[in-house]
Structures are given as C-alpha cells and as structure tokens.
User: Which sequence fits this backbone?
C-alpha cells in the first residue's frame, strides 16, 4: 500500500512541529499522599519533520502514548518522548499534557474535608542524540524517583522539562482597603507558575507555597466559623496582583528553581475584566524562553 | 441535478428542528441612545422537518438571514423567521442570535467614561399559518416601533419571542459581613434574565434595573474616588445570590413581563466553584417553558 | 454566630433552584468491562428554597457529595440527592454531573488498541416525600445493580433520572456524493442522546448502537489498512445529519427507552458553521421535557 | 487620598508585564472594500513595572484605549501603546486585540453572496525612548496609510508589531485518497499565520492566498452546483496538514514578510483529535520569537 507520507518533498521547508493535538486520555500520575492519582488528560504530541519528507505518521504518536498512559511520572514522560522520537525517526520530540490534579484540603477551623482541583501541565522536549537508541544520559530525577537526584538539564543537555501549575486563590485589594471607610473589594483569581525542572520536588509543596502568598487560599467546604476566619484573614492580608507575582517569585527562588515564570490574574469584582501581572526568573544570562501571558 | 433532500423518507420520524448552528455574522441592532449599534452575532436557525422528507436545504437559512443581518430588530427578527419558514416550506421556524451589546457608562463619582459589554439573545419561534403567505397578524411591537403597541402573544398566537440579557454584577456576602469583625467576601457574578416579549421595552432599562439590585454595578473605568464609593456602596448593600434573584424578579414583575426566568451565578471568591439561584414567573397557570440553568 | 440564611424572607418568592455550580471533583463510576472507572467530573447541585427562607447553606451540598464521590452509580446518585434534600430540609433536590468516560476500542482491521473519550451526564431530580426520612420506594435499578429491575419512574414517582451521552462520529454527505463525479464531503460530528432512565442498561451498548448508525465510527489509532477501510466504509454509508437522528431514534426505541431526545451536529467541512437536527420521543402523551438544542 | 500603587516596593523584582486582560470593547478597523468595519474586540493591555513601584494604575489603560477604540488601524494601535506607556510612566507598553473580521464572499459557481468570519489579532510592543514625549521615529506604515512606506522595524527600533490571522479551510487527505478505492476523508481545519509587520499589506490578500492553498476554501452559502464544484475541487487537491503549512509558508515568503510563523490544525474526520503542523521563517539569523503552538 502506498506510503505517501514517506515520499520526498521538494519544497525545502523543514517543519518545527508536526503531530497530534487535543487527544483525550485517562492517565495515572504520581501523588505525594496517595502514591498515584487517576485523572484525565488533554495531550499534544509532536516531532520535527525534515524538509525532505512529505508527512509524519500520525498513528504512531498515539501508539506510543497508549503504552505510557497508565504511568505518567516526570521521568516516564521524557522516556515516552524519547521512544516517540525513535519510532518516528525524528531529531526532536515534544509533548504536553494538561490534567486536573486533586488534593484533599480541610477547612481551616472546622477541619471539614473537601477536595480542591488544580491544573497541571507537563511539557517536554527531547533532542535525539543517536537516532534509534535510547540515550543513557537521559536520567532525570522525577517524582517517581525514591532518591531525588539531578535533573535533565545538567547531565543530559538533550532534554528539557517544564512543569506548570495553576492555583486558584483570592486577593483583597490594598488600595480599596486603604481608601475606604469599611470593606475592600476582593475576588477569585489564579496564579500560574511554570518551572524548568532540575531537581526533584512535589507539586503539593509548590501549591502550598502559592496559597500561603494569597490574601486567602480557597476551599471546597467552609462552615460558618471557617468563613469568618477566611474573611478576616483576607482583610488582614491585602494583595495586589503585583504582590502575588512578587511573593510567589521569591518562594520559587527559595525553592531553587533555575528558571521560572509567574503569572497572576484576578477576576476583579468591580470590573468585568481581569487584572494581570507576570515576571520571569532565569539563573543564567540567556533566558531560555519568554512564555508568560 | 439530483435533489436527495427532497426525496421521500419512510422511517416515519418527524424532526422537531433541523438547520444551521454557530453561524458567525456581523449584525446591526437597535440602540436606545445611538439608534443603531453594530455588533457581531452567533446565529442558530432551524425549521421542523415533516416525517416524509429526507432532508432540509441548509443554504436557504443563510440566504434568508443574509438579507436581514443589517437590521435585526425584535420586529424584523420574526419577519426573518416567517420568510425562512416560507422558503423552506416548513410548519415552524426557530431562530436564536446571541450578540454582545455595548453601553457607555460613566464612573459613579469622577464621571470617567467607559463602555460595558452585556450579552443579549433574541430567540423566536414562528408557526406558519398558511404555508407560503405572510400572516398579516404577525405584527409584534418591537424596539424599532416608534409607537409601542401590543406584542406577538395576544394578536398573533403564531409567534413567540424571548429576549435574554446577561448582566455582570458584584455581590457582597451578607453572612460573611455579619459574622466577621471586618471585611466581607465579595465577587463578580452575573444575572441572566429571559423574558417573553409582549410589549415594547428597551434593553437598557432592564440592565439598569438589574444593576440597581446588585451590591454594586461593575464599571470599565474607576478612578480612586470611584473605587472608594463602589467599595463602600457594596459593603452597605450585601446580597446573597438568592437576594439578587428575588429583587430582579420583583423588578421584572413591576415592568409587567408576563413570563420570565431569573438566574444569578456568582464566582465565589472563597471557593473555586459558583453559587447559583433561579426563579420563574408566569402570569398564566401553565408556564410556557422551564428553561433556567 | 448569626445564621442569616435561616432568617425569614418577606418577598414571598420561592426559588426553584439554589445551590452550587461548576464544582470539580474526581469520581469513580461503573464500567462494563473493568467494573469501575476513575474519571473527573463537573458537578452542579441544587435544592428548591421556600419563599420564607433567606438563603440555603451552600457548604452542605459539597459535604454530601464528598461522601459519595468515590461511588457514583446511577443508583447512588439518587441516594446522594435524597440525602442532600434531607440535610437541607428541602422539598426537591437536583443534581447534574458531567464526566468524560473512556472505552478501549481497537482499530477495525489491524486491531491496534486505543482509547476513545465520550462525555456522559447524570441528571436527577428527587422530590422528598417525608422530609427527613429516606423513602423506601426510592430503589431504582442501576448500573451497580447485579439484577436489573424496574427504574425510578414506575415504583417511585418521587424521582426522575436522565442519562446523556455524547458520541463523536463522522458523516459523509449523501447529496455531495450523489451530485459529484468523485469524492464527497465528510466531517466529524457528534450525536447526543438523553434518556429517561427506567430499566438497567450499559452506556457502552448505547454508544455501540450510535456508532453503528454513523457513516463511520471514530478511532484513536488507525494504521493505513484501517484508514482505507474507514474511508471506503464512510463512502458506502452516506448520512445526512437528519439520517443520524432518525437512525439513532429507531435504535433507542428498540432499546425500550420511554422518553428520549436525539441531537446530531456536524462540523461541515465545506462551511464554517455546523448542521444540526434533533427529535424527541415520548411513550406517554405528555412529553416530560423538551430539552434538545 | 492614599496612592498605594505609587509607594515603594523593596522586594527588588521588576515585572515584565502588568495590566488588564479580557476587556471587551466595540472597535472600528480598516476594511479593503468598505474602508472601515465595525467589530467587537477582546483587549489585553500591559506595561512593564520597575522593581521599586508597588503597583500600576489599572484605570489608565482603559482610559487610553477608550480614546482610540473607534479607529484601530495598525498605525493608531502603536500610537495608542505609546500614549499608554507615557501615561503610565513605563519603559515598555504591550497590547493585543483580537477581533472577528468579516469579508463578503460569493459562492464559486452560483455567485450566491454570504459573509465569512476570520479571526485577527494585532499585537504590539513599544519601547519608550524618552519617557514622556512621543517619539518622532514611530511612524510605521499601516493599513490607514494612503502611501505605503516602510514599517516600524527599520526606522524605529522602538516598536514591533505583529498581525495574526486565522483562516478556516478544508483539507482532503492525500493518503486516504491514494489507498482507497473511492472517497477520501476530508475535514474542516484552520491555518493561523503571524507576521512581523514591516510593509503595508491588506489582510484580505493574505486570506486569499491561504484559501488558495487549501483543498477547498469554505463558504457560508453553497447551492447544489457549488457543492458539486467544491467537492470535486477538494478531491482534485488533496493536502496534508504539512502541505498546508509549506504552501502558505511559500506564499508569505513571496509576499516579502521578514518573519512569520504558520500553523495548520485540522479536525480529522476519522479521529476525535486534531492533526497539527507549524513552521517559522526568519530573514535574520536570530529569530525574534518562537511562538507557534
């Protein structure tokens, strides 16, 4: 049967990425408290396509991902990309999966239990060193690793891995509080961080740090004593969207991430539009990527 | 050329609706202050299909709408549906268009000008009386009418017309205010009303009434003196989502609508989910439609 | 601490529904092949509010749902609503959860395995008979039941339960095929069915029936021999959106559902808008609900 | 009244961007055939914030945009950003507006008229040279310009302007056609291009070029003779998503754009996921931005 994709292309245009988008799959990821968590992902998978080939073979992306979907750790995610690059005879392989991540959180006074949803993204890029064989240097430490070790950046220059986490929070406006006789407008918002992976960390710890920076964290269940606590706590901790970004920036720096971006966006309760701020940090002088907003 | 749609179907299943969805078109609608307003609409158009026909003729929906898109008043909308029903030789014609509607609104203290966006929907259903000729009784009064008159419901039982308006507002929680030493959680939300059209009214008047029911209306531009006013005004006017529905319900009843629904939904600033309430009013004993939520 | 929600309201307006929307929770549902399936849900929960109460107690909705989220069968869903109505001292309780549901499906020729995503919704309404005690008549058979039995409609007039399933499919246009020398436009679309629950059934069986009505089912993985098969199969089975609705209608009638709606919508490949059709079936003369489109 | 935003911040963290997102405004843009077009925009506006200030003044963004919303040419868009930067005493100002753009297009055989919607984005960045005074070198040629001239890049290194256009198209799969006895799967998709602005061009011309690269353009209204033509035309012009990117790439290069990205994504009619490809072109050796996907 004819294989048009494999035929020669003469337009001399290499494609940076070609592949599949918006694939929906159940996945199993790591969980600090419960070891593993079942959730549902939206998946994008790509490879580069050299100028001389007409097309890629789309079915192979899903075939490789299907093998890995029941164990998506940070570690196995890069392995999966490496295998995808090999199967498609590519020089580079890219992947991004986004999934809701659930953490049980008790109300601050009553202790009533509830579950919060956060949105996580794993994004990776692998440059194949010798097409066809798995690189021995591709050994990033990851959540699956019992003994934390160094990440992909230092030992293996052939892979980069980013983790994004979106955390819903509330902010109370310092200006509104300062100029008003009583009250202060406050609102739901979110902080989104994206970190270049190098050393082992738990998603749960980053979320906790971000929630501690907010006027108040959010909860699924709040009884009246909790609502009083949360209301007063927010009033005592006013935060601009700019403050959210700066405090989370300091938090991530303290956690020793080498490169990250922080974004905050709040659904202003007095406007029908949002307030937004972002910052980027890079240990090295040539920032890898500017990707906020 | 063969016309399969027109061929006979033997499955004996009439279809309630068949047509086109998600058509994007520029439209011109009426405006209380500026006479007309240019905006952009998402359009759904349907007719019924008797059991003995295989299919409808999709191109005719757009052909008829194209004729009317530069003048979408409440009046011409029903005319358009009547013409669509005629062209498609149908017994019933349905249409729904949703569009952003813009109103200039000044800040409450400084008077700084800005524009607010509201979402409006026109939804109509016309039952054809004599297929092929336009019913003389289809004469609803509408925004285009210089002299308001009676609407479609009484004189012409062959048409029903609904108008929905979604208004962004803010609510400040009465419970949070009552139990806390200081502050109170507040948030953006919206009120959505859907009214059966009978007598002439201006969209602007319904929006004004709804905004007056909120803890505070929203604005595009607020200088510091405005922010102080709005913050204090909200603190003085706490509203549950239930209060929003009940106050707007009274407002619409006072405006003499014969049938309506009111929904309110608020993006709770202390949770990552929303609070919701709805109510329906019907002058007659057999409510036409339950359509909230 | 003051309980404002419990205070008296004098506006004399009962609310049909009040509660929480857009709650995100992990859930466990039943699965024909694997017994249970972990997935992620969006949850809306409401009760009615009598005219004389100021507000409902929002935290109780989540507290009750939290108890049940690890076992959402059709059966336990109504139990959950009954408990919610009791805890909130309401006359009626409503709930709707929507979740992706995954089924492994092999390619039609090569047998290559892949997973397909479908969207399911459980929607229930329970009328409390004696506030505070669980009705013994509330015993719908459900997917959890080993021995299928009669559903909620007949023995217990106090509960109604609906299941919706959205199935992606492809249609190839009969008109385009008939009038063209070669080729025919085809496209992705979906069929959405909503059934009133009465007797036990598997979601998997409804999905299979719907996919068999399409020009071709969709697959996650298709090798070249599969692509050839699927292309030719679609060309041999042209379907209008009207045909999809009518064939699925016959299929659901054969499965003995007492009330249902069928909708089909296709992302026409020659237009930037969609084609749509819907039909409703009711065994009784007073159709319960018109809810399509 | 206290101005907290203006107070000093000691965390020593500059913010790349701070401002407003998701502002909804009516706008007037240029139109090749009708001179101007009224449409509706979603607007994001930002400036940088030096490390020593606590916050920005959000109301000023909307105040400046309000002045310009009735005349958004490529030219005035940069002027608006320059004024925004000045009013906010910033070093850099950023803006992005996205709006539907409508073009009347006749059916290919019958000539039946209809309107197509495309999505356009203007994105600009202005670096202020002397805070407080408008730079005389900021004179990009733009659609408003009667005599096309050189753009912002060469004479004024202080501004960059990007235009994105998203065009819905259809592709027919070359592989499916080659391996099947009859038929070929085809589907709706879109091509999105983003160009660095330098010389004057009309959006309409880029759209025409992109539609000519597709298996077939899309239309709002197609009569049967048009449907036959479009079906056969698509069958005669099979295109992979990779082909779409490469042909549009050549088209943009021929139009002399100095930097651009091309993305194509198709809603595969045999899968429930999409196929995707992208490429980037840069005349200079240091590509400005990698922003596809």
Assistant:
């Amino acid at each position: 049967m004819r294989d048009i994709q494999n035929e020669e292309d003469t337009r001399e245009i290499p494609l940076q990425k070609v592949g599949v988008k918006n694939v929906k799959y159940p996945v199993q990821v790591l969980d600090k408290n419960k070891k593993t968590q079942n959730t549902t992902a939206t998946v994008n998978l790509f490879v580069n396509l050299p100028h001389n080939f007409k097309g890629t073979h789309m079915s192979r992306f899903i075939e490789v991902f299907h093998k890995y979907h029941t164990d998506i750790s940070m570690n196995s995610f890069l392995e999966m990309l490496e295998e995808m690059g090999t199967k498609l005879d590519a020089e580079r392989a890219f992947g991004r999966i986004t999934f809701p991540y659930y953490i049980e959180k008790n109300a601050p006074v009553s202790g009533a239990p509830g579950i919060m949803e956060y949105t996580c993204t794993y994004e990776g890029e692998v440059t194949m060193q010798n097409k066809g064989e798995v690189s021995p240097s591709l050994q990033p430490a990851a959540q699956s690793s019992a003994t934390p070790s160094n990440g992909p950046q230092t030992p293996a220059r052939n892979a980069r891995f980013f983790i994004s986490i979106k955390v819903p929070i509330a902010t109370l406006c310092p200006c509104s509080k300062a100029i008003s006789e009583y009250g202060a407008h406050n609102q739901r918002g979110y902080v989104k961080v994206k970190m270049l992976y190098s050393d082992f960390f738990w998603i749960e710890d980053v979320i906790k740090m971000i929630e501690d920076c907010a006027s108040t964290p959010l909860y699924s269940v709040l009884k009246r004593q909790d609502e009083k606590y949360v209301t007063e706590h927010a009033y005592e901790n006013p935060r601009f969207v700019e403050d959210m970004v700066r405090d989370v920036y300091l938090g991530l720096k303290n956690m020793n991430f080498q490169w990250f971006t922080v974004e905050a966006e709040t659904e202003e309760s007095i406007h029908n539009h949002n307030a937004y701020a972002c910052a980027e940090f890079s240990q090295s002088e040539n920032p890898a990527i500017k990707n906020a907003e």
